[in-house]
Known about the structure:
This protein is 29% helix and 16% strand. By secondary structure, it is of the alpha/beta class.
Amino acid sequence: MALAAFSCPLPLSRVLAQPRAGWNGARVCSDRSVAVCATRSRGRKPRRGGDGEGEHRYADSAGNDPPEAEGPEEAFQPRKNGGPDQDKAAVNGVANSSSMFNKLKDLGERYEASKVSKRRAANVVVKSSEESDGSEEEEEKGEGAQASIPEEAPPPPKVKVDKDDPSFNLELGELQESVIKEPRFKMTLTELLDEAKVVPLSVEGDLDVIISGIHHDSRQVNSGDMFVCCIGETSDGHSFVPQAAEQGAVVIVATKEVEIGESVKAVVIVSDTNSILSALAGAFYGRPSESLAVVGITGTNGKTTTSYLLRSIYESMGLKTGLIGTISYSIHGKHKQDAPHTTPDAVYLQKLMATMVHNRTEVCVMEVSSHALAQDRCKEIDFDVAVFTNLTRDHMDYHENEDSYKEAKGKLFASMVDPARHRKVVNIDDPNAGYFVSLGNPKVPVVTFGMEKSADVHPLDIQLTLFETNVLVKTPRGNIEISSGLLGRHNVYNILAAVSVGIAVDAPLEDIVRGIEEVDSVPGRVELVDEEQPFAVIVDYAHTPDALSRLLDTVRECGPRRIITVVGCGGDRDRGKRPVMAKIAAAKSEVCIFTSDNPRSEDPLEILDDMLAGVGWSMDEYLKCGERSYYPPIWNGNRVFVYDLRKIAVRAAVAMGEEGDAVVIAGKGHEKYQIIGKERKYHDDREECREALLHVDMLHASGIDTSEIPWKFPGHKL
């Protein structure tokens, strides 16, 4: 069976990846078009894209080019610019390219091969020689971690500072804004145990040994550090004591006797290393959260956008504000670094906040994940405001059930006990609102928000377009009008949450409005990709059933002619949501392409098989349709296609777009990688969309019909 008979057609892999030379395509829009450039809508200023992510094609956050593609992806590498004749030749010749068939194997063949491979692997146990130390990487994409303690995040860039230098205490404004001063801490073992209130079972060695750092990942250990042997689901930190000792660890904290090297000066035995990690880190770094106003945001959806809005509100009030969340960590201002987890591990979280305090940050806005709360990573954080956005199914691969998921989220609100200082902000429209309000001290003031008039903060009028959101909000201190670049009804909730926090902390209304309107977009959250095409292309992080449903409802409210959706589900995570998400996408989109989204150790085709069950198909049935080069409509008349290579699926969806359509790429949002096995391969949905948009006109000019899969080539039989 030919490749193009059931997958993204051949020319896409070569033609769309190649830059066009001398293209002067004219913009075409009609009254029905949903692709009018957002930068020209109602005179709004250009969309900033949050922190500027995704603005430059094929460059990561550090400005580096992406890694070269391997294997089949070599076909996607751009060639050097050529003239129009060369581009035309590429279009005409690609259909006959035998090398493409060699590089991109038939989907059916790969599916059969995967079955054979799985049977062969059934009796084979492969053990990695490089396990993490009592930790396992947690993907905070609504798909839980596999370990009790996550891998420690990389330390922020180190800046050597002489404390005796009189310039050491200068305001950052007098230095380069990008320079962040990193504090240094030292403490004896006795002082640390006393300050952390840790009562060990036994201590052998020098109690006066000086500790200069704490780690639970042996790869991060430096000379003079303490190494804590945390235990994860797939690895045990005790196994990495020799590596930690070799790296220069002077103190080992363990739950049992361990072999130590000459560098180790003391061994502390405790009953549970995981439970004391937060206390040790908090004590060592001086409990920095006590010197910050800390706003914690928890819930299934909306945390990231709400955190961006709150940071902007506090900055509008003239306060230096740090940010800890899914997209990035920021000390304050423009300084930021990529975020490996929504909420960092206990040690890095304390170190990050200590760096904020050292650099005169006044407020910290942070997303608080259920994993972080369940694993007590935030146990030593002194929160001032707790925000609840909503609660829907998520992380069922990690939490035992939905009740345990809710209880983990509730730990944040249980810490709200001081009526004079603490505040609760709750989405009253959520059926779980009462549970969160009841936690902690009932005397702590509560500010509610929602669409209903019973909420303290609610909208009086909402106007939604695909270019901006206008909302008139009623608050206890008066009404405010907000014009935001954040799109959709779900973002109205995020705006209401941010306004409610402003009300809770007595922020001036003008600062609340100014702060919210300053955020034109958040990377990967209903982010428009605009190359002046006559249809909308939207990239969003929606990766849960509820988030996907809300996203598609938002797009539908804007009146597109059709919705074309690309969606996938993660591997090694909650299998139960795969058919659910597939059914939602198929029910709310005229065209769906199911694809991969971080398959990890699972076979992508088996994940897709689970998804197809949501529309009443199986992979075998889908492939049989492919033999006839035609996939019939599903129960509601909509179309469903499958391709496991996400790059191809994204570009095929863009090539399908016609005037007035909305192409929605869901699941990865701001992410710049695809996890295959244990390897992270570079991938950015936004870049793939841009590259496809730059070439789709040329593709159509060649006579290729991309309206469905398989593509139809003029005068060419597949």
